[in-house]
């Protein structure tokens, strides 16, 4: 059974003090007698328009580089904080010469394109719309603009999918659209393509379309590795809810679509295909990770084999902790909450943190913790890191001038990123342990992004589940197996 108010959107100004204060810029919080839905500017349309505007502002922020800094030495693009991989890799990965990714060998240190196959296709398609004549600077500018147009479509897809995933909370999409770190990092690399597929997959799961979710996650994994991590939270949630058939469909769809994209290149150009995976394994400790702080502060050199092992162990321990949290929580956690925690654990333990990796977490954060105060605290930390890495690179490339941020200052920027992400993780864990504090569940909702998991009874849990919160009196209960000490010391099955 569903709530009688399920078809009515939740105005964020009635639940969030920061949203209410911010709404004063456009006339104040929504009134008690407001006719919601009567305007042609629906929440989803507003979110899409805001995303387009913010994406455009992010492009404007890159203008110094677009006009001259990309082409006049490394230091300038760092001091203006407008660096992007896109124009540099147009030449550096052979797209300017018409080379075919994975099949044609590159000159220089990189023998093949070091990106997953679906991202390589995205890059190649953009090159088709880039003129073959004119100066190389002009062609790099056009290639960046073409990619920006394609990435803007991805950005709008992400914001709209987030707005539609929680049916009653479309305004949560504004967290994505207005995120400052989103605008600043959207055009650094091609991550938005994989994120758009992941956001669309989560929308499909929220609608109960398990196979389509898997297909989209498989395609996203063919563009970037991290989306496959979402299968872990889904596994433990489906175990607690007994939804094996749905998880099987998701797993089948993921494997099938990933193979569909990768298998042709894997068979026809195996050496080029495996470059992404070998590059990821052999990459040394790099920018943004706590491993870099350790190596630079102590002078201890860590081989990439050591860091790979340590990172895997830490990631396994984090995932084990998340699984334990899932089974022992008084109520089954929401899918978005666990998805954020798992991806955040991967980012925190990884040996590199590029500034655009924050994009992976922004849609998940909007779904997991739609609270402006927490979200903006985290975003402030990420913006400081965004500025910190470019100022550090400016310092290391400016020669004797030493313009920018020295090593100790950069370490502080890394710590801000780490602390900000851990802060958001801690608040999400608190909401899982104290479900009445969860903003999404305040109106009696269970898991709006959970699809078949939404309002499904538990069949397996460790410990004692909480009683249904207010608004859930009509929730259908089923058999539940619980292991642990109940009141009186007995272990029993409900």
From TrEMBL:
The chain crosses the membrane at residues 42-60, 142-163, 175-205, 211-237, 249-267, 310-329, 375-395, 410-433. Belongs to the glycosyltransferase 87 family. It is found in: Cell membrane. It comes from Streptomyces cremeus. This is Glycosyltransferase family 87 protein. Signal peptide: none annotated. InterPro entries: GT87, UCP010361. Keywords: Cell membrane, Membrane, Transferase, Transmembrane, Transmembrane helix. The keyword Nucleotidyltransferase does not apply. It is a multi-pass membrane protein.
């Amino acid at each position: 059974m569903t709530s009688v108010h399920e078809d009515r959107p939740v105005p964020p100004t009635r639940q969030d003090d920061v949203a209410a204060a911010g709404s004063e810029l456009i006339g104040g919080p929504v009134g008690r007698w407001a006719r919601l839905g009567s305007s042609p500017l629906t929440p989803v349309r507003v979110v899409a328009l805001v995303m387009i505007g913010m994406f455009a502002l992010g492009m404007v922020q890159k203008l110094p580089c677009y006009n001259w800094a990309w082409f006049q030495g490394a230091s300038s693009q760092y001091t203006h904080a407008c660096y992007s991989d896109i124009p540099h890799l147009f030449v550096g990965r052979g797209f300017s010469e018409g080379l075919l990714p994975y099949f044609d060998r590159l000159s220089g240190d990189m023998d093949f394109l070091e990106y997953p196959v679906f991202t390589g296709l995205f890059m190649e398609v953009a090159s088709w719309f880039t003129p073959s004549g004119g100066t190389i600077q002009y062609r790099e500018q056009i290639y960046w603009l073409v990619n920006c147009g394609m990435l803007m479509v991805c950005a709008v897809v992400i914001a709209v999918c987030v707005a539609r995933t929680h049916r009653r909370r479309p305004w949560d999409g504004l967290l994505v659209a207005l995120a400052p770190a989103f605008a600043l990092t959207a055009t650094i690399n091609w991550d938005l393509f994989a994120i758009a597929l992941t956001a669309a997959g989560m929308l499909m799961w929220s609608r109960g379309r398990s196979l389509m979710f898997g297909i989209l996650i498989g395609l996203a994994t063919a563009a970037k590795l991290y989306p496959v991590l979402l299968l872990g939270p889904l596994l433990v949630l489906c175990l607690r809810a007994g939804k094996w058939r749905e998880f099987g469909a998701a797993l089948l769809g993921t494997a099938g679509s990933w193979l569909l994209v990768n298998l042709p290149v894997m068979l026809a150009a195996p050496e080029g295909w495996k470059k992404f995976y070998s590059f990821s394994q052999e990459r040394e400790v790099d920018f943004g990770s706590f491993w870099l702080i350790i190596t630079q502060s102590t002078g201890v050199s860590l081989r990439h084999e050591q860091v790979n092992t340590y990172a895997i162990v830490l990631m396994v321990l984090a995932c084990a902790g998340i699984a334990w949290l899932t089974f022992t929580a008084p109520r089954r956690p929401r899918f978005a909450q666990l998805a954020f925690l798992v991806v955040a654990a991967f980012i925190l333990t990884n040996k590199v943190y590029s500034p655009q990796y924050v994009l992976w977490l922004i849609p998940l954060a909007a779904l997991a913790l739609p609270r402006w105060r927490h979200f903006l605290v985290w975003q402030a930390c990420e913006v400081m890191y965004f500025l910190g890495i470019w100022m550090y690179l400016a310092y290391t490339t400016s020669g004797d001038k030493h313009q920018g941020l020295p090593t100790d200052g950069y370490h502080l920027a890394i710590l801000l990123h780490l602390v900000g992400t851990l802060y958001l993780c801690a608040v999400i864990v608190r909401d899982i342990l104290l479900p009445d504090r969860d903003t999404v569940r305040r109106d009696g909702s269970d898991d709006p992004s959970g699809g078949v998991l939404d309002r499904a009874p538990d069949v397996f849990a460790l410990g004692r589940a909480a009683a249904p919160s207010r608004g859930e009196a009509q929730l259908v209960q089923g058999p539940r197996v619980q292991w642990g000490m109940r009141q009186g010391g007995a272990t029993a099955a409900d």
